[in-house]
Design brief:
Length: 169
């Protein structure tokens, strides 16, 4: 994470937050007060399996929900993690796994899409992702989605999937 500042401007800009500017005073001790932080949090846990060739699939059946009131724009901290495992009995079976955070209501990817591989040598993969999302008014349901590709790829199990969304106001 890269921070830049302008002398005398009393601002720090975090370049990976996609346009979010944080004032230095917002980072001072006791700067977060109840009028600045209307905390809403939602978390779900899920388990299941993902089959190859089916596109991105959510890892939980009920995504956490955050509602932003009319006339507001909020920052939402969305996090997700899960444990993936496949039974890849032969050396030729390689599962390419992609995962992302997704806003189910807006139909958009939240942040980046990441990639890893499972094989008969590496049969387990812990995935984790977080992103500060700018949310417009309305209801947002966030999910951690997984997609499998690869020749001869067996189904992969997903365990301990957790998705959290925290409305930071």
């Amino acid at each position: 994470m890269l921070a830049t500042s302008t002398p005398g401007a009393n601002l720090v800009h975090w370049t990976n937050l996609h346009g979010v500017t944080v004032a230095t005073s917002d980072l001072a001790p006791r700067a977060v007060t109840s009028d600045k932080l209307a905390l809403t949090t939602s978390q779900v846990v899920g388990e299941g399996s993902v089959s190859p060739g089916t596109g991105f699939a959510p890892t939980t059946s009920m995504p956490p929900e955050v509602t932003v009131p009319a006339g507001a724009q909020h920052t939402v901290m969305v996090t997700g993690h899960a444990q993936l495992a496949c039974t890849c009995p032969t050396a030729g079976e390689v599962a390419t796994v992609e995962w992302r955070l997704y806003d189910e209501n807006d139909g958009v990817t939240v942040g980046e899409t990441y990639r890893g591989q499972l094989s008969n040598i590496n049969q387990d993969l812990a995935i984790s992702v977080s992103h500060l999302a700018l949310a417009v008014p309305g209801t947002h349901e966030y999910s951690l989605q997984v997609r499998l590709t690869g020749a001869g790829t067996p189904a992969t199990t997903v365990s301990s999937a957790v998705v959290s969304a925290v409305d930071l106001g």
